[in-house]
Amino acid sequence: MKENDIKILWGRSGNRCAICKLELTPEGEVSTIGEMAHIIAHSNDGPRGDSELPTCERDNYSNLILVCPTHHVQIDKNPNEWAVEKLHQIKASHEGWVSQQLDQGNISVRAIDNSKFISTRIESWNEFAKGKVWVVVSITPLNIAGDLINPIDSQFINEINRIKLPDEISRNPIVNSYNTRPNENGLVNDELQDLSKGNAHRIQVFRNGHCEFMICLQGSVDQITSEANKNDPKSRGFRVVRYTDLAECISFQINALFKLWIECLPFKDMLLSSHVLNTKNTMLYSFIGPLYGYPVESSLLEIKDIVNRKTSAIDVGELLVKTFVNYFGLVLNHVRDQKGDLVRPDKLTKRI
């Protein structure tokens, strides 16, 4: 689901269930109980899924209705009773009611917006990175509303201490629990002693529910750039990122954050964002031929999407890797083959 569609849905629905008008984020609640239901199911075999509406349009605002958990179950268990036309009528009537209530001052709506917080985090990441190439993946509640969790609770500490690290950036297969500690944001685990060599990580859990996993790839970038510049004139003057390192990092980050979310966090929906920092004049190395992507002109590569607890971490990882590969001017149909090995990116059109 796109972030803008989510904000429109919540705003026009007035933070209320479209069917029973129940307030979905009561004062004092840690997490919203609102659920964004599909009018036409995302898959053809789901409730009301037998439709000509393209799959790519089924996550759009026009096909979503905001409801409470009770009515979400009811409309999906009884699709014949809750037909597509009926749900569209209910949604339109409810949004009209919300507009009327807002005009009369009878209800107020707390904004579902975390954009200012995300912008602040990007500024912080760029300052912390100091020109080095870092991969950052984060999950953020849709609405940032103060301190919602206690990140130094034992469940967070235990989950952080189980996080696995890629071989390229650590001498240990999992984080060093000695480095897990409270900080001004909440809870952090980092290892920065080899940062001068371009190998480091930082994981943070914030009191507002935001979680982020940063991995420095500069050591790998320096190594492959030196080799590429010696052997291939096309790469000279550019920094080079090894595709396999980027793909493996994202896989580790996504798996860690989703497990942390499922095991410890109460939120049903989150904003997933992924960034590669300091990418200007950087190319992707694919190992085929060898094959290089095209130099990136932006200093920051970014992907954002709304995900829920049922979203597959594997599917999210695939989407991120394939999109970043596209940013570097290459294409990829599948990230891994049937054996689980990484598939190499290629040119969109091969030279004849």
Brief synopsis:
The chain is an alpha+beta fold. The protein has helices at 3-13, 69-77, 84-103, 115-129, 154-160, 218-231, 243-264, 313-327, and strands at 35-38, 64-67, 134-141, 180-182, 186-191, 200-206, 211-216, 239-242, 269-277, 282-285, 300-308.
Weakly predicted, low-confidence segments: none
Shape: globular
Strand percentage lies at 15-25%
Structural class: alpha+beta
Cα-based radius of gyration, to the nearest Å: 22 Å
Please write the string of helix (H) and strand (E) elements: HEEHHHEHEEEEHEHEEEH
Mean pLDDT: 88
How many structural units, i.e. domains?
2
Query: Which oligomerization state do the chains in this entry correspond to?
Result: single chain
Q: Would you report the number of β strands? A: 11
Can you summarize the main beta sheet? Answer: 7 strands, antiparallel
Helix content: 25-40%
Cα separation of the termini: 39 Å
Strand order across the largest sheet? 4-5-6-7-3-9-11
Number of helices: 8
Can you put this structure into words, describing what you see?
The protein is of the alpha+beta class. It has two domains: 3-103, no CATH class; 115-327, no CATH class. 32% of the residues lie in helices and 18% in strands. It has helices at 3-13, 69-77, 84-103, 115-129, 154-160, 218-231, 243-264, 313-327; strands spanning 35-38, 64-67, 134-141, 180-182, 186-191, 200-206, 211-216, 239-242, 269-277, 282-285, 300-308. The strands form three sheets. Strands 4-5-6-7-3-9-11 form a seven-stranded antiparallel β-sheet, with helices on both faces. The chain has a two-stranded antiparallel sheet with strand order 1-2. A two-stranded parallel sheet has the order 8-10. The mean pLDDT is 88.
